[in-house]
Design goal:
Length: 385
C-alpha cells in the first residue's frame, strides 16, 4: 500500500462511512452500550473501544490508522497538541531516578518539559553526537531523544546508526519527525522505537489546527494510550481529526511543492553576499546532505539562514522589510513565514542552543518561488546593504 493511497483512501470505504466522501465528524462525548457487561469490556480496552471522547472517537481513530500506516507502525495515538504527544511519550518511558539523553538541538518546549521533570527526579543531558552519548550515558539512562534534521540548525544524523546505538544499550529511542513528515522520512523503518509529530505543521497544512501524534509498536503505544493520554487529558477533538484527515489527502502533493519552492529559495540565498550561511539539508553544500539522501526521499521547506550581521536592529529591519513572508511562529502552512530567535529568546538560552544573532528561520509556503525570492532580495538589500 503506497503513501498516496494511505493519505487519500485508507479506511474511507468502510460501512460506517455510509458512502460519504468526507469522513463523518462524531461530535458526541460518549457512547452508550446495550448491557453493563459490554460497557465494562469496553472500558478495559478504551484505547481501542469507543467509550468517551477522552479515550478515542471514530473520526480520531481514522486519523490514527492513517498516520500509523504512513509511518509503517503498528499503532498511533493522536493528541490535542504536539507537546501533548511529546510530554506523554517521554512520561510513559521514565520514572523517578531515570536519566534521558538528548542528542542534538531539539524543539525548545521539549527541553523545557525535560527541565520540568527534574522536580520529579528525572534528569537529562544534552550531547552533540554519539561520542557525547558514550560519555554521558549512565546506568540510569532509559531514553534517547532526538530530531533529524535538528531544531533551527537542521543538522542531519544517521538515524539507523543512532537507533542501533540506543538499542544495543537497552535504551528506547524517540525521534521527532515533524520536519520531514512520514512522506519524506520513516524513522521506524530505520530502527527508531517511537516517532512523534506536531500535526499542526505540514500534516495539517493550513495553519488551522493544533495536534500531535506518537506512532510505533503496540507494546509502547498502548500503555501510554491507556495511561498518560487519559490522565494528561490532551485529547484530540474529532473536528481537529477531520482537519488532519483532509490535510493528509493533499500531503504528498503539497510536500512535493514545498520541496521545489524551498530549494529554489535556499539556492538563491546561498549565493547572496548578505547571507553568511544557509542550513538546508537539501543543498549539496550541507554537511549532512549525503546522509540525508540515503535516509530521506525528499526535503521540506523549513530551513534557516545566518545573516551577515551581529546587530539585532538589522535582523529586525530585515524581517520588517519582508512583504510576502509574514512574521510569526509555527510553519508548514500555505503561507510563508519568517522568525528570528534572537529577537524573542533570552540571550543565555540562545547561547546554550548555539543560535547566532543573525539566524533567521524561513518557512517557505506555496506561493510562487520567484515572488518569494524577489521579496527576500529586496529586504536584504534594504536592511543589510
Amino acid at each position: 500500500m503506497d503513501d498516496e493511497w494511505i493519505c487519500g483512501r485508507l479506511g474511507e470505504d468502510e460501512p460506517w462511512m455510509l458512502g460519504a466522501v468526507n469522513p463523518p465528524v462524531f461530535e458526541n462525548s460518549l457512547f452508550a452500550f446495550a448491557t453493563a457487561e459490554e460497557l465494562g469490556e469496553a472500558v478495559r480496552n478504551e484505547d481501542e473501544r469507543y467509550v468517551y471522547w477522552r479515550g478515542t472517537n471514530p473520526t480520531v481513530d481514522l486519523a490514527q490508522r492513517k498516520l500509523a500506516a504512513l509511518e509503517r507502525g503498528e499503532r498511533a495515538k493522536c493528541f490535542g497538541s504536539g507537546m501533548g504527544a511529546i510530554s506523554a511519550t517521554i512520561s510513559s518511558l521514565v520514572s523517578a531516578g531515570d536519566h534521558v539523553l538528548v542528542l542534538g538541538a531539539v524543539y525548545g518546549p521539549t527541553t523545557q518539559f525535560l527541565r520540568y521533570l527534574e522536580k520529579f527526579g528525572v534528569t537529562h543531558t544534552h550531547v552533540d553526537d554519539l561520542a557525547g552519548c558514550d560519555s554521558a550515558i549512565r546506568s540510569s539512562t532509559r531514553l534517547l531523544y532526538f530530531e533529524s534534521p535538528s531544531y533551527m540548525a537542521y543538522a542531519v544524523v544517521d538515524i539507523a546508526e543512532v537507533a542501533a546505538w540506543a538499542r544495543e544499550r537497552g535504551l528506547v529511542s524517540v525521534m521527532d519527525n515533524t520536519w520531514s513528515t512520514p512522506i519524506f522520512q520513516k524513522p521506524l523503518t530505520m530502527g527508531v522505537d517511537l516517532v512523534v509529530h506536531s500535526l499542526s505543521k505540514y500534516v495539517g497544512g493550513h495553519s488551522d489546527l493544533v495536534g500531535g501524534v506518537v506512532a510505533g509498536p503496540s507494546r509502547l503505544v498502548r500503555p501510554l494510550a491507556l495511561t498518560e493520554y487519559q490522565l494528561y487529558g490532551a485529547a484530540m477533538s474529532p473536528h481537529d481529526a477531520a482537519k488532519v484527515i483532509k490535510g493528509l489527502r493533499t500531503l504528498p502533493v503539497r510536500m512535493a511543492a514545498h520541496q521545489e519552492r524551498g530549494l529554489a529559495v535556499a539556492g538563491f540565498l546561498e549565493g547572496h553576499p548578505a547571507v553568511r550561511a544557509v542550513h538546508h539539508p537539501g543543498l549539496p553544500s550541507h554537511p549532512g546532505h549525503a546522509i540525508a539522501l540515503r535516509q530521506m526521499s525528499g526535503f521540506s521547506s523549513l530551513f534557516s539562514l545566518v545573516l551577515n550581521t551581529e546587530s539585532r536592529q538589522e535582523v529586525a529591519a530585515f524581517l520588517d522589510k519582508l512583504r510576502h513572508f509574514r512574521i510569526g511562529v509555527s510553519w508548514g502552512g500555505f503561507e510563508s513565514l519568517v522568525n528570528a530567535p534572537a529577537l524573542s529568546t533570552e540571550e543565555s538560552v540562545r547561547a546554550t542552543m548555539g543560535i547566532p544573532v543573525g539566524l533567521v528561520r524561513l518557512s517557505v509556503g506555496l506561493e510562487p518561488a520567484d515572488a518569494l525570492i524577489k521579496d527576500l532580495d529586496h529586504a536584504l538589500e534594504a536592511s543589510l546593504a
